[in-house]
Amino acid sequence: MNQTRVFLLFAWIAAATLLFMQWNKEQTAALQQQQAAVPTQAAASNGAVPGAVPTAPSGTVAGVPAAPAQAGVPQVSNATAQNSAAVTVTTDTLRVVLDGGNVRHAELLKFPNEAKSTDGVNVTLFDADPARFYEAQSGWVSSTGAAPSHLAQFVPEGNARNVTLADKQDAIAVPFTWTGDNGVTIRRTYTFPRGGYAIAVRDEVVNHGNANWQGYVYRQLVRNPPPQKTGYTNPEAFAFHGATWYTPGDKYERRKYDDFVDDGTLDKDATGGWIALLQHYFFSAWIPGDQDKSKFTLSTTQDNGVTHYVVRALGPGVNVAPGQKAETNARLWVGPKLVSAIEAQNVPGLTRAVDFSRFSIMATLAGWLFFVLSAIHSVVGNWGWSIIGLVILVRALLFPIAAKQFDSMAKMRKLQPRMQQLKERYGDDRQKLQMATMELYKKEKVNPATGCLPLLIQMPIFLALYWMLSESVELRHAPWALWIDNLSARDPYFVLPVINVAIMWATQRLAPTAGMDPTQQKMMQLMPIVIGVTMIFFPAGLVLYWVTNGALGLLQQWWMLRRDAARSVPAKA
């Protein structure tokens, strides 16, 4: 076994995986269309409103006896909700349209849709358009009296409907108020920070009535997801799209949109944690207080035959005696998967929203690699050169393992003449040829698997690098040098893919071919072209990674061959 054979095996496995993933996407898309056409039992149970209001839990909060359970807030059409007074808030990072219960629109001002765009069209996450419906919603339910849902019951304070963060302001607060006929008032304040994407949401409950009031706050994300892009050369096609949640002391979990119903309802008790909806490069998340107790649920609703997906956190609950008050606090993240900004929130597990991998070990490894990549970027100031520097560093650290692999290849190369003799001796008798080959390996103390094992050890690192580079929003629209002005798009002139093919061909020429039959040799000769064509439309950042890694591998192999050749030359007398 040699490096080229292992690479061939890995290439075929990768191709098969890509084909399976593409087939699976087509099947799940068809299933999703069927589910959208026929309302499911789970959807019907939640009403016909995108993001229907949950029912207030029965029981007690903080030792107060429960009142008879009611249906909560009467269902109101979504159109009614859209007619309430809305406020537009503009900061240096966001332009948001919201009423008291719904964040209807969120534009990311620092992230244009297209690289070097001058049309002013930026990435948007929330959208009230039914065809692209996506909102963050929050309200209250109560079993002891009236409570404000997210449906058009909060009123903005003051007359301002367009609010802009001033140059000297660090944050801007936008308050809304609900007043019930039971004497209960809830004041909700959204606070937008400068330079950030985490919106603080505080609810202050004041009871001016004559009876105890018990209520539960709910926060939910509702979306009619657009069709997911496909294509094995498009990283977005392999990014996760769906709901994720995290509970401290438990684990990070996720569910794709088309599995919301099939995998059953989620009823997870949590203290702290968070819920989110993810897409490539961006996400939204509700982050309750770290000591708040809530229940995470997943559900779907139907609206005119369209399926809406809901991830909800219900709780915490509060009891407010007459003349008393209580408050709850949460954060709403709406923005990019910027690791540094997410880490600044100091929320356990929130960095998993970057979703380098669903597996904790691979995600952790990718996180370490991104940390190193960011450290290099802080010095060189260019993500392209940072990728090259990271690959050089990884290659240097793995050099002892690669050296063992090359030593095994050198031993195999020395046996080529004798193996060729065995082939001529036994001809087409494959069984005898195999037995004689194994006997030769045993006699010369050569283990073919030795060349395979180092590469298998390196593969998790290189896979983690691949997913890290695919998912890092920091590389989105980032330039490198010369003609490469966007590392997240393909090389416009296909220079890097051609260089990659040349490096693969040169590496193959240095690899031993002893033991291969003519068919295998022909397949190996075609591999550089097959892999080169496969990667021709890959994002330039990924191809740059492969080119750098391949070039360093070729250099190592060439140096090892020169070293072995020098060792085999007898010393002069």
Automatic annotation (TrEMBL):
<feature type="transmembrane region" description="Helical">
    <location>
        <begin position="383"/>
        <end position="403"/>
    </location>
</feature>
<keyword id="KW-0813">Transport</keyword>
<dbReference type="GO" id="GO:0051205">
    <property type="term" value="P:protein insertion into membrane"/>
</dbReference>
<feature type="transmembrane region" description="Helical">
    <location>
        <begin position="6"/>
        <end position="23"/>
    </location>
</feature>
<keyword id="KW-0472">Membrane</keyword>
<feature type="transmembrane region" description="Helical">
    <location>
        <begin position="448"/>
        <end position="469"/>
    </location>
</feature>
<keyword id="KW-0653">Protein transport</keyword>
<dbReference type="InterPro" id="IPR038221">
    <property type="entry name" value="YidC_periplasmic_sf"/>
</dbReference>
<dbReference type="InterPro" id="IPR019998">
    <property type="entry name" value="Membr_insert_YidC"/>
</dbReference>
<dbReference type="InterPro" id="IPR028053">
    <property type="entry name" value="Membr_insert_YidC_N"/>
</dbReference>
<keyword id="KW-1003">Cell membrane</keyword>
<comment type="function">
    <text>Required for the insertion and/or proper folding and/or complex formation of integral membrane proteins into the membrane. Involved in integration of membrane proteins that insert both dependently and independently of the Sec translocase complex, as well as at least some lipoproteins. Aids folding of multispanning membrane proteins.</text>
</comment>
<dbReference type="InterPro" id="IPR001708">
    <property type="entry name" value="YidC/ALB3/OXA1/COX18"/>
</dbReference>
<dbReference type="GO" id="GO:0015031">
    <property type="term" value="P:protein transport"/>
</dbReference>
<keyword id="KW-0143">Chaperone</keyword>
<protein>
    <recommendedName>
        <fullName>Membrane protein insertase YidC</fullName>
    </recommendedName>
</protein>
<dbReference type="Pfam" id="PF14849">
    <property type="entry name" value="YidC_periplas"/>
</dbReference>
<dbReference type="Pfam" id="PF02096">
    <property type="entry name" value="60KD_IMP"/>
</dbReference>
<feature type="domain" description="Membrane insertase YidC/Oxa/ALB C-terminal">
    <location>
        <begin position="383"/>
        <end position="560"/>
    </location>
</feature>
<dbReference type="InterPro" id="IPR028055">
    <property type="entry name" value="YidC/Oxa/ALB_C"/>
</dbReference>
<dbReference type="InterPro" id="IPR047196">
    <property type="entry name" value="YidC_ALB_C"/>
</dbReference>
<comment type="similarity">
    <text>Belongs to the OXA1/ALB3/YidC family. Type 1 subfamily.</text>
</comment>
<feature type="transmembrane region" description="Helical">
    <location>
        <begin position="526"/>
        <end position="547"/>
    </location>
</feature>
<feature type="domain" description="Membrane insertase YidC N-terminal">
    <location>
        <begin position="87"/>
        <end position="364"/>
    </location>
</feature>
<dbReference type="GO" id="GO:0005886">
    <property type="term" value="C:plasma membrane"/>
</dbReference>
<keyword id="KW-0812">Transmembrane</keyword>
<keyword id="KW-1133">Transmembrane helix</keyword>
<feature type="transmembrane region" description="Helical">
    <location>
        <begin position="359"/>
        <end position="377"/>
    </location>
</feature>
<comment type="subunit">
    <text>Interacts with the Sec translocase complex via SecD. Specifically interacts with transmembrane segments of nascent integral membrane proteins during membrane integration.</text>
</comment>
<dbReference type="GO" id="GO:0032977">
    <property type="term" value="F:membrane insertase activity"/>
</dbReference>
